[in-house]
Design a protein that fits this description.
Elements: E1 17-19, E2 25-29, E3 35-38, E4 42-53, H1 56-61, E5 73-84, E6 90-103, E7 108-112, E8 116-121, H2 126-129, E9 134-148, E10 153-156, E11 164-166, E12 171-174, E13 179-184, E14 200-205, E15 209-212
Antiparallel strand pairs: 1-2, 2-5, 3-5, 3-7, 4-5, 6-9, 6-12, 7-9, 8-9, 10-15, 11-14, 12-15, 13-14
Protein name: AIM24 family protein
Pfam families: AIM24
Length: about 230
């Protein structure tokens, strides 16, 4: 191999999921260890891996998650190495240990199929966000990969009694046990700059984390809707 390219070659497998660089996910696939991944996120694979777009389990579980081509998840099965990416976004790998994570549908890249998951409405936000906000809650013991438009910050909400406020378009994920409520800002300064996005925030309180990306992604490309 050309020495200038050697540094980009695949590295030895050390975990079920791991990063290859900042913007690519490497998954060690094995028989019986199926994976759900965002449809169209596969960029390369080695070995024998099969793909099933919009499988029955996804159609049943995510009936509210409608796009022009149905639920945006595919089931991956087989043996080999699978590489996933999402338009150059940073990839964050999380190993859940009998834990839960609520993820914005726009930022969910892949997760182990044996994990418990479902589409849930975020309580307490309907009067602020029109029809409400929907997220995907993943729980159990296994691997999850999420994306971030840039290097994210993880805020620990348990360090004090103050609430943590987040622009909904910059929100990636949070601990489901956190209390969530909406807050409006009526100050004229909220309307200056890139529009009125900062006029509505989500307030988190309790014990847990909030993951925030340095970008306001309001494309709704894969957002869950009612």
């Amino acid at each position: 191999m050309n020495q200038q390219l050697a540094g980009y070659a695949p590295t030895p497998v050390t975990a079920r999921m791991e990063n290859h660089g900042h913007s690519m996910l490497k998954v060690a696939m094995a028989t019986g260890q199926d994976l759900y991944a965002r449809t169209g996120s596969m960029v390369a694979y080695e070995g024998f891996i099969q793909y099933e777009p919009n499988p029955p389990a996804v159609r049943q579980m995510a009936s509210q998650w409608i796009t022009g081509e149905g639920a945006p998840l595919m089931k991956c099965a087989g043996d080999g190495l699978l590489y996933l990416a999402d338009y150059g976004a940073d990839v964050v790998v999380i190993n859940l240990n009998n834990d839960s994570l609520s993820v914005n549908g726009t930022n969910l890249l892949a997760f182990d199929s044996h994990l418990t998951w479902g589409v849930e409405r975020v309580k307490g936000l309907a009067k602020f966000a029109g029809q409400g906000l929907w997220n995907v809650c993943v729980s159990g013991t296994g691997w999850v990969a999420i994306t971030s438009r840039g290097t994210p910050i993880v805020v620990d909400c348990g360090r004090g009694e103050d609430e943590t406020y987040v622009d909904p378009d910059a929100l990636v994920a949070w601990s489901p046990n956190l209390k969530v409520k909406g807050k409006r800002s009526f100050k004229a300064s909220s309307l200056i700059g890139r529009g009125s996005g900062e006029a509505f925030q989500m307030a988190f309180s309790g014990q847990g984390i909030v993951v925030v990306q340095p970008s306001e992604d309001s494309t709704d490309r894969l957002r869950v809707r009612n």
